[in-house]
Amino acid sequence: MLRIVAVTDAGGTTTVHPDPRRRVPGRGAWLHPDTACLDLAVRRRAFSRAFRRRVEGSDAVRDQIESMTQ
């Protein structure tokens, strides 16, 4: 399982980022490290529900999953 955290930038945009070392404080969510699971979570807006705020991007998580599967 891959831990995911929500990060808000200075502009107020919230994106999700992987936390493979499980060290970032705050609320986290868990995701199976598979691109199909990520696509399903994005389609169902699961990150927004898990973090209780609007989440707009998941590119960093996709990059992490793709690097893990190579």
What do these coordinates show?
The chain has 70 residues and is an alpha+beta fold. Helices cover 37% and strands 23% of the residues. It has three helices and three strands; from the N terminus they run E-E-E-H-H-H. A three-stranded antiparallel beta sheet has the order 2-1-3. The radius of gyration is 11 Å and the shape is globular. 17% of the residues are buried.
List the helices and strands and how they pair.
Layout: E1 2-8, E2 14-18, E3 28-31, H1 35-43, H2 46-51, H3 59-69
Percentage of residues in strands: 15-25%
The low-pLDDT segments are none
Radius of gyration from the alpha-carbon trace, in angstroms: 11 Å
| Count of domain modules | 1
Global structural class? alpha+beta
The CATH architecture name reads 2-Layer Sandwich
The CATH H-level homologous superfamily: YlxR-like
Q: What would the principal axes of the Cα set say about the shape?
A: globular
Q: What's the SSE pattern?
A: EEEHHH
**First CA to last CA: what distance?**
17 Å
**Any idea of the CATH class?**
Alpha Beta
Portion of residues in helices? 25-40%
Number of separate helices: 3
Mean pLDDT: 94
Write the CATH fold name.
Hypothetical Cytosolic Protein, Chain: A
Strand order, largest beta sheet:
2-1-3
